[in-house]
Design brief:
alpha+beta; Acyl_CoA_acyltransferase; GNAT_dom; Aminopeptidase
Length: 178
């Protein structure tokens, strides 16, 4: 276990999470910000990338497990992403559709923010979110982040505008820390 919140456990992904990842990453509606569902090969590549991140950085995207039911509901964590030609720590989250709008993403993202500041000692954390993904943008704002920039990423043959959100450790009020 990496993190625990009121309702969730976040732990490293393992190869046995492949079928759960398929349910998540192969759902067209869930993956709309990525221009559609992933193939089996793309899911395995995604999982391999997370496993490699654990070895390279000692963090990455983690499995989100509901405490009450032990259900695998999605993933959330911190990865290193390129922004303005440098690597920055990014909080990312992706949930199975049936768990949308229940506060899980915000709960996990806040826990990741605290882990990023207090354990990993990052002075700032980012979320880089496709401009059409308003739900994820709302999670970033609830996580204390503010929009600071817009960039364009080229992915799957498409130019995709993304909004860059950021929060700095000194901007988080002690009363806002869960």
């Amino acid at each position: 276990m990496i993190l625990e919140t009121e309702r969730l456990i976040l732990r490293e992904l393992v190869q046995n999470d492949y079928n759960d990842l398929c349910r998540l990453l192969q759902d067209d509606e869930t993956m709309y910000a990525y221009e559609g569902a992933f193939s089996d090969r793309e899911v395995q590549a995604w999982l391999d990338k997370q496993l490699n991140r654990y070895h390279s950085y000692h963090f990455g995207l983690w499995a989100m497990i509901r405490k009450d039911t032990q259900e695998w509901i999605g993933q959330c964590g911190i990865t290193m992403q390129t922004y303005k030609d440098q690597e920055v720590p990014e909080i990312g989250y992706l949930l199975q559709r049936r768990y949308w709008h229940q506060g899980y993403a915000t709960e996990a993202a806040i826990a990741c923010r605290e882990y990023g500041f207090n354990t990993l000692q990052f002075p700032a954390l980012y979320s880089i979110i496709r401009d059409t993904n308003q739900a994820s943008q709302r999670v970033a704002i609830r996580n204390g982040m503010q929009p600071i920039d817009t960039i364009v990423k080229y992915y799957r043959g498409i130019y995709m505008p993304h909004d860059v959100f950021c929060v700095r450790k000194e901007e988080i009020l002690p009363t806002a820390i869960p």
